[in-house]
Amino acid sequence: MGNADLVYPSENEGISHRVEIPPPQPFIKTFQYSLKETFFPDDPLRQFKNQPASRKFILGLQYFLPFLEWAPRYTLQFFKADLIAGITIASLAIPQGISYAKLANLPPILGLYSSFVPPLVYAMMGSSRDLAVGTVAVASLLTASMLGNEVNAAENPSLYLHLAFTATFFAGVFEAALGLLRLGFIVDFLSHATIVGFMAGAATVVCLQQLKGILGLDHFTHGTDVVSVMRSVFSQTHEWRWESGVLGCGFLFFLLITRHFSKKRPRFFWISAMAPLTSVILGSLLVYLTHAEKHGVQVIGNLKKGLNPLSITDLVLVPPHLTTAIKTGIVTGVIALAEGIAVGRSFSMFKNYHIDGNKEMIAFGTMNIVGSFTSCYLTTGPFSRSAVNYNAGCKTAVSNIVMAIAVMFTLLFLTPLFHYTPLVVLSAIIISAMLGLIDYEAAMHLWKVDKFDFVVCMSAYVSVVFGSVEIGLVLAVAISLLRVLLFVARPRTFILGNLPNSNVYRNVEQYQKASSVPGVLILEIDAPIYFANSNYLRERITRWIDDEEDRIKSSGETTLQYVILDMTAVGNIDTSGISMMDEVKKIIERRGLQLVLVNPGGEVMKKLNKSDLIEKIGQQWIYLTVAEAVGACNFMLQTCKPNPAKDESTGTWNNV
Amino acid sequence: MGNADLVYPSENEGISHRVEIPPPQPFIKTFQYSLKETFFPDDPLRQFKNQPASRKFILGLQYFLPFLEWAPRYTLQFFKADLIAGITIASLAIPQGISYAKLANLPPILGLYSSFVPPLVYAMMGSSRDLAVGTVAVASLLTASMLGNEVNAAENPSLYLHLAFTATFFAGVFEAALGLLRLGFIVDFLSHATIVGFMAGAATVVCLQQLKGILGLDHFTHGTDVVSVMRSVFSQTHEWRWESGVLGCGFLFFLLITRHFSKKRPRFFWISAMAPLTSVILGSLLVYLTHAEKHGVQVIGNLKKGLNPLSITDLVLVPPHLTTAIKTGIVTGVIALAEGIAVGRSFSMFKNYHIDGNKEMIAFGTMNIVGSFTSCYLTTGPFSRSAVNYNAGCKTAVSNIVMAIAVMFTLLFLTPLFHYTPLVVLSAIIISAMLGLIDYEAAMHLWKVDKFDFVVCMSAYVSVVFGSVEIGLVLAVAISLLRVLLFVARPRTFILGNLPNSNVYRNVEQYQKASSVPGVLILEIDAPIYFANSNYLRERITRWIDDEEDRIKSSGETTLQYVILDMTAVGNIDTSGISMMDEVKKIIERRGLQLVLVNPGGEVMKKLNKSDLIEKIGQQWIYLTVAEAVGACNFMLQTCKPNPAKDESTGTWNNV
């Protein structure tokens, strides 16, 4: 034990405690614990504990069909609220559905189909009370761009349509699988910054695409990037239709004004909610009365009457298009999921109820699988529609059922009314919805708070706008992950100093008043010690010691004798890290210094112990607090002569 | 400020300090600092500081040509040591070079060429004194398997050869670029565990491949996995040659015995170092005398006399094979680099001198670029040869020059002697070298210390043996990265308790004696709060509170009033993390509890401040130490009534 009997008598801390090695656990137990923390952090089986079997069965049923939980307690008062909310969102869903279906290069009627079946499924299975189900612009655009690379929607509309159903099917399967396998945390890797940038980029791209409708152009690029869109627009200036342009700008102005008004006075939320339907009605009337469809204003044309036809036999489950369908499904599915989960979570925060992310994924997945069998394409919980639902005072998912019934009524009886609806109105509706997604305030906030997040956000934006939606997504996720890896690969290390008149030691950069202890260098390592950073940490610690010795040499203070490593923030260590610690110990000792460890955590102590490094370092050089370690060092400095092993020669040649 | 005047008078800590926000830094300065830490952690420009321009120039030259540093001080004594070491490694290099070239499906003479030019280049540029340059088995195998997928070496040997030069060229360019761009840390992502598993797997595969030579088979699979090799061996049992088998097993036995002996008595290292050359000489004599080449024992045949021919004009820099060459170059280059850097670093640790990883990469890169111009294929610093060099007492890189001269002599005069060398001896040499790479003790150590590293190691091994070398590499790196991501995605959270008779608070799992404080829940978060874990942490903190309230309910203690989050180990926070903290605050307050933060680091304080979260939480609820925070909470608990906002109802319906 050598110096063990020279243990410093702790003054300030009462009884001196040793750093303990946590009691050994059987491997299977720690493994189970890790599995549980990884896949069941929310402890979903909590309420099943200590319940009789029958109760467990009911709870299990309620887990997958949450409506069983609230339906028995449903009241007439709730229904009144849900009825109003449902009708409000239906008036938004009908024009938006038609618009977004056009955006996805799908028949407009699909937008209505998709607002009928999926909301019914969600009402049974979803656990959010505020989410309104429907199609979304970004996923529609992604569908168009990804499937469009494989099949031309104009040349082969039926194959394109079938591929869209297939992609929806796989999106549903993927979503449900994520939920069932409890892998919902994959969605967490789309950080807030990524989503802000990505959504703004996608919205910009979608708005630019609407120039086709606003200017009444027949031919347009299939590319989504700003360069090809602009080239497409300005290469055919002679084709621009002023009638179309005037109509579009007029309606856009109307929509933006109402939106602005409703934003200022939230009580009048219904004004902006009704505006799209009003525009559609006004636009259709205008065209019908002026016969503008004969003067260059394109209209929707015939919409088939009747409910969703079955499409289960249309799924394309054979090569060569299968891969594209699966890819499209996974990408659009995860994007849709991210939006839906975020929306559900936000509103549950407002109203203080709990949303289970994995359960929601199963609901979204089932809704899309059923949807793909009944001529629907990808649906999720769009933010705008859910916000209207919330503002309209919805109480439960019944508002989705009301909306579905309203859409059913439209499908059965009202489709002919959309014959004269000008496409330019749909473009105006899309632009007005998309402008709300460009959240420049959020981007400013990112810049203010966290520059790296801003970089992530801007790279997502720029690469969506100038590259493609997929590139933007991949790049933003990659940069976000790079940040996590960089945090581990280049952990911060700090010098700690003593705060005056206390036994607290803190980072000298943060606490200007903290002062260093003569003869002792105290370093804090701020990350787990892993293979990815063990080489860096070795070099960095060496450099801290070099710097400190240089400083001491120039100032003529006491020579350095002790290096204290505060391991409080080192959450874990792997075998590369263990080797690194061993090397650092050797490097420090070769310079005639003594390594002292402070407060290694349970995992770290366990591994230091198993690899016999505790014995090498010496149990007596591991302290519970920095204050104790410094006390011991000072005690040694005062009672003992300087360490005789101290070797001042630093030439590179002396060991040859 | 509300409760601010009720600040707890700190008893134990002397003057009470506040958590400080680090002084604001201009963005450009923090950015520069981050860049420096990321790319120049070893501060290579340190010695250039405050030097006159002429000295800077010399230092710069010495940086790229380290021999300028030691050459002036070179003595005759050093030379004697280097001469012995050089001749020893040459006797190992010649048979190994020929063997590994056969393994790469290249003409055997390339093995000799590759032991001539690259060592000379390394002697000028390398900073290791112990590294012996040469080809390695794993990279040779990888070259054979990756190029073999594109071009059949037997059918089109000249194209195959040219592609090997091209791959070597790109490996060199890639290595030098990593060094010049200071991206050497990419090599760190090959963790120790990955390398142990990967090397053992590759060694197994290489050994199995040698069954071809040992059994004297003419036809053999191109696959490297155990299944196709075994099928290939046992489908042609009638082709097995007993003469070849007996010879092979005999020599293998001889090589293993000498290796075992030298391992036991390190003084006799030269016995195992000389054994391969002895085997070659004995084998050749035996074949020459018995004319065994006519009885099914395959021999090397003619080797061209003369030094390396130029191959710069043979590089294939046009499609369609360019991509394969680049891919092969990068993969083999990074593997070779990892081995070379690790070897250089290990020996520099023994002898206590410094190795600059990035500088070494430039040396390796240049050596391979020059090599690719002069008919060499990929070289690095193999462990076995460097260990022999070290044991033989080498002093400087001059031992590499001696080896190169010995090889040159062989090339000029001795190649005809290898005509009768039986291939089976080469196989025995390879097997005996490879068995040393299967480090089962290291694997056992991994199992003992770190189960996750063991999993990484075994997946690398299994996927190399049953899949392919590339798959194994990618998988092992992916699993290692997954671990880093999991660490961040699922950080540990602990309950802290008070150690008896002290004001130290530690994890109750590690310290069995630590006791909880009534009415206060103290949690420690053990990782940065990032997008990848913010949802998890919110759920996990909620669950800790649930568990604590359940426990209190059943035990009838004081109700929970305060939740203290110890942020000491939270190194950083991003905007998603900030939102999470905001949500956690709301959740905690909605339950009628008070959130208290302890010791947020500099980065965290900066961002909490910029996002105005400090004000929302209240400056008075942020303490420097857990002890102070607990003291303040106890003070409040004793002086104030329980928080009136406390709301015990937990039904899910009450807010509808």
Automatic annotation (TrEMBL), chains A, B:
UniProt membrane topology term: Multi-pass membrane protein
Keyword entries, A-Z: Membrane, Transmembrane, Transmembrane helix
Domain STAS: residue ranges: 510-633
CDD domains: STAS_SulP_like_sulfate_transporter (cd07042)
Transmembrane segments: 131-148, 160-181, 193-211, 240-257, 269-289, 361-380, 392-414, 420-440, 452-482
Keyword Transport appears in the UniProt entry: no
Location (main, coarse): membrane
Keyword Membrane: yes
Pfam families per UniProt: STAS, Sulfate_transp
Record localization: Membrane
InterPro entries in the cross-refs: S04_transporter_CS, SLC26A/SulP_dom, SLC26A/SulP_fam, STAS_dom, STAS_dom_sf
Alphabetized PANTHER family for the sequence: SULFATE TRANSPORTER
Protein name, UniProt field: Sulfate transporter 3.1-like
Organism name: Ziziphus jujuba
